[in-house]
Amino acid sequence: MILLRNLVYVRLGTEDLDEAEHFCTSILGLEMAKRDADNLYLRSNTRIYTLHYLKGKPADQAVGIEVDGAAELSDAANLLEERGITVYRGTREEATARRVHDFIAFSCPSGNRLELVVRPQLSAKRYFPSRDAGITGFNHIGLFTTDPVRDEQFWTSLFNVKVSDRISDIPLMRFTSMHHELALVRGEGPGIQHINHQVETTDDVMRNYYFLRERNVPIVFGPGRHPTSGARFVYFTGPNNMVFEYSCGVDHIADEANHRPRQFAFEPTSFCMWGSRPTGFVKTGD
Ligand SMILES: [Fe+2]
Asked: What is the pLDDT of residues 93-143, one digit of tens each?
């Protein structure tokens, strides 16, 4: 069993770093940590960065998740290889670029690129956003899956990942007490389906909704409330049509020992209990 501790970063390829910088600093409300010819690093919390745009193809995406240390990283590599998964061991130079001590990379059965990292760097400098969106930090991701049942099995059999709830056969999964760090969403191929940043309050969700609308940022779902996690949310698109989410009030699983995943039907109200329709977000047949 591989113990996952924290979601650390998302890396996205883009041909246009200027567009990414403008969106992240002027619209999304992250702090620019560093920019060079090929890289744009952005902060959302105490980490040195949580979002990394790398000059390249938009399909080049990866998610970084922290494990405890060098021994655990080595054990994880061995376990993955025992299961027939090809493991790439990061070089020192690549680890430096990621601002981690060491890492391994591999793909889930749907082809999503995952990186297990040790000792990701924090910054002693206070997170100071470029716009007051109310962001308290990078929180969770949606991942496309070509087979939710197979991929749920992958996550729950190899890692300390548990299912909090399901909508049809889409699992919302956690490896901390938070309702979900990983949501699988059916798609045609691999990819990051959405990137969530938490904001402080429902007021922030609504302030951001009006801010986005005034600037003609495409809103694909919400404002609304998930009946699963209880979070109030709004989803919108950024560069290369990546979907970003602001939300607040994600439930924590208080009674870990007795929690059982609840089953929700595959219908619009399972995604939003206020009536917003997720037509631009997931295919519901609605
Ligand atoms: Fe979300």
From this structure: 999 999 999 999 999 999 999 999 999 999 999 999 989 999 999 999 999
Span from the CA of 138 to the centroid of ligand 1 (angstroms) = 11
Gap from CA of 35 to ligand 1 centroid (Å): 27
Q: Is the pLDDT at 193 greater than 50, yes or no?
A: yes
Ligand 1 centre to CA of 241 (Å) is 16
* C-alpha 53 – ligand 1 centre gap (Å): 20
| Domain shared by 139 and 109, yes or no | no
Residue 78, judged by CB atoms within 10 A of its CB (0-12, 13-18, 19+), counts as exposed
Final residue belonging to a domain, choices 118, 146, 174: 118
Q: How far apart are the first and last CA of the chain?
A: 39
Instruction: Find out whether 65 and 115 touch, Cβ atoms under 8 Å.
Output: yes
Print the domain residue range for 110.
Answer: 6-118
Whether residue 113 sits in one domain with residue 144: no
- Residue 71 exposed, middle or buried by CB count within 10 Å (0-12, 13-18, 19+): exposed
Tally of domains within the chain: 2
Residue 47 lies in a domain: yes
Q: How far does the centroid of ligand 1 lie from the alpha carbon of residue 84, in Å? A: 31
Ligand 1 center from residue 2 Cα (angstroms): 24
Is the residue at 205 inside a domain? yes
Ligand 1 center from residue 236 Cα (angstroms): 11
Pair type for strands 113-118 and 182-186: unpaired
Same domain, 227 and 169: yes
On whether residue 80 sits in a domain, the answer given is yes
C-alpha 16 – ligand 1 centre gap (Å): 25
pLDDT confidence band for 284 (50 / 70 / 90): low
Q: Which protein residues have their CB within 5 A of the ion that is ligand 1?
A: 196, 245
Q: In the prediction, which pLDDT does 286 show?
A: 46
